[in-house]
Amino acid sequence: MNHFPEFASRIAPLLVNDIDTDQIIPARFLKVTDKAGLGASLFADWRFQPDGSPKAEFVLNQPQHRGAGILLAGNNFGCGSSREHAPWALVGYGFRAVISTSFADIFKNNALKNALLPITVDTSVHRKLSELVLNEPSVELSVDLESQTFRMPDGGTVRFPIDGFAKSCLLNGTDDLGYLLRFEKQIEEYETMRFGSGV
Question: Which CATH number does 7-162 carry?
Fold first, then answer.
């Protein structure tokens, strides 16, 4: 997993509540065990007509929102069945962060393990962001995981919560196993002390 540096990006507004994982990545695309290419199927039933042509009215197909690295979603994002393919598809498409007033717990944990930052904000901040991006699609937010803040276009900052362990892993570009392996020498020393050199 790559390090998670500070970044700035435009925002794609998908202001729908209770977007579930089957809407994020429909079940028919879950046969793969490799995340490569899943971004092409992100929100497939909302993005494309049955013949595969794009639906012009869907936000990700609109020119002003193409290439956005932040998704602004409605409440309770990522609910439904547990599937790691959902953050895989979002990251594969190019999203670095999702902003919502709340996330389903399993989705949130899967996102953090796959370098997708779930940013929880209160309803007043969410309303302000929604109005901002709908009125001026070119605006950007600067996201700084180290300080757990993002900077608004007017210069104001908003702080967001994140689990300390997940934050450390993202900043250091590692996962749970990688974190443990950093202490391999100490683990070996403990095992030798506890069980002897025959272990």
Answer: 3.20.19.10
Strands (E), the chain: 7-14, 70-73, 97-100, 117-120, 140-144, 149-151, 157-159
The residue extents of the domains of the chain are 7-162, 163-199
* pTM reported for the whole predicted model: 0.88
- Sign for the CA dihedral angle at 124, 128, 150, 63 comes to positive
Which residues share a beta bridge with 8? Answer: 142
Decide if 96 contacts 70 (C-beta within 8 A): yes
Where are the extended beta strands (E) located within 19-170?
A: 70-73, 97-100, 117-120, 140-144, 149-151, 157-159
pLDDT tens-digit map of 156-187: 999 999 999 999 999 988 876 666 656 667 76
